Amino acid sequence: MVRVLITGMSGVGKSSVLRELGERGHSVIDTDYGDWTTEAGLWDDVLMGALLGESNEVVVSGTVENQGEFYDRFDHVVLLSAPISVLLDRVRRRSTNPYGATPAEQQEIKSNHALVEPLLRATATVEIDATQPLDYVVDRIEELLVQP
Known about the structure:
Structural class: alpha/beta
Mean pLDDT: 94
CATH topology: Rossmann fold
Number of domains: 1
Strand content: 5-15%
CATH architecture: 3-Layer(aba) Sandwich
Number of strands: 5
């Protein structure tokens, strides 16, 4: 069984990928929702520790400052990436998450793309081009679920 983390910038498609993986029968956790993060925006050590200690196969999605503390418990850390123009277009059009609708939030996304994404790329074990069709991206992640 395999544990996979899907990470990347806002608008890259993490939630869409997770939703499709869930529909295909995989155990998925979107840490943007529920009690997975603390008020400081970090993953809750106890909850994440329990999840990763108990789950044989799980796909977790999120991008938080302390995620690297959990990398040793994932078999794969997948960075979904896309050009900033694609990310901004997606956050402007999406209806499932209001983040990215304001100019200030869009500027924050630009800054994170420039500063944070390179850090994620340096620590990812796999990078997938999220401009590819959703089925293609999900198929690549499913392949990882059978490869420890």
